[in-house]
# Entry
Amino acid sequence: MKTILRICFIATMSVLMFGGLHLTAQNQSKTTVKPKNIIFMIGDGMGLAEVQAAQHRATQPLNMFTSKHIGLITTHSFDDEITDSGAGGTALATGKKTRNRMIGMTADSVAFPSLLEVFAAEGKSTGVAVSCAVTHATPASFVAKVNSRYLYEDIALQYLQSPIDVVIGGGLKDFNKRKDGRTLTDEMQEKGFHYANVIPDKPIHNASKLLILTDSSHPKSVLMGRGDHLIKATKLAIETLNQNPNGFFLMVEGSQIDFGGHDNNIDYIVSEVFDFDAAVGVALEFIKNNPETLLIITADHETGGLSFPGSAVKGTLRSAFSTTDHSGIMVPVYAFGAGAETFTGVYDNTEIFSKILSLTGLKVK
Ligand code: MG
Ligand code: ZN
# Structure
């Protein structure tokens, strides 16, 4: 009898204890900090093989590898198993599948608001900081609505009409050497933008709107001497946008990992992944003191079909490419900060949009 009582007692205590633990875990997930700021980082063409190639040459773990919340996303577009950066960027920016080469609209040409626009409508500051022309497909997906990504001058014009506050990258010719003869950098200055061709080291005093166009088209590659363009751009964008007490949305793109993939050039890829990962480091520094920030790092697709077949010298990786175009393999998601746990698992690229909206409680108006 005593033994039975003791077993009952132990069982009851166990239920109470484990019940208690369970409740604590539930409470923790319910009290997840609602992100005030979103930093959305896209490595264009950055599949797992590209990240692994960089890690293989690194002396310490890549910043993105310190994530405890990792997911995988599928990247197919509306009309193709293999997405381009137009449909891939649009899926990430608007949560909508579209046809390759389309920007900011559904497959039947209905314009849809991007995360940047949803956040701007809530009184948050917004920006893009990239290592390509700001009129290129990925940044364009957050700002423009066009049925061809190659309408660069139309995309530049849509920056003028956008609620965006901070624009950093190349692409000056699409603003100022135009068929319609307009000088959009002048028109943007009239709208209150501080305009420059060099990325300043510190935020400009009293300037909450920045247009920094460093190159006529794309900035150089890291291998050709781009230097710390993306690191400085990320830092400046964060510091400028963070002046808004309502918070901000920033998209940062490591644009040229994809260019290295198209070239089947492993040194180009690895140098661009390092550069992008250094920009991730800047975002992580910010999160340390600003925990109400969500940082998402992902890719629009893989480029090059990179793999590491056998018959390599021990300790080295032999790189092999299966295409000079994009591939359809899933790409990683590394999340940090407020709500990061929401981004684990295997899901579709369009779900990042809905996950961010449900975490922040914001809606498409
Ligand atoms: Mg891109
Ligand atoms: Zn590409």
In short: Residues 45, 85, 258, 262, 303, 326 surround zinc ion (ligand 2) (CB under 6 Å). The CA atoms of residues 194 and 224 lie 28 Å apart.
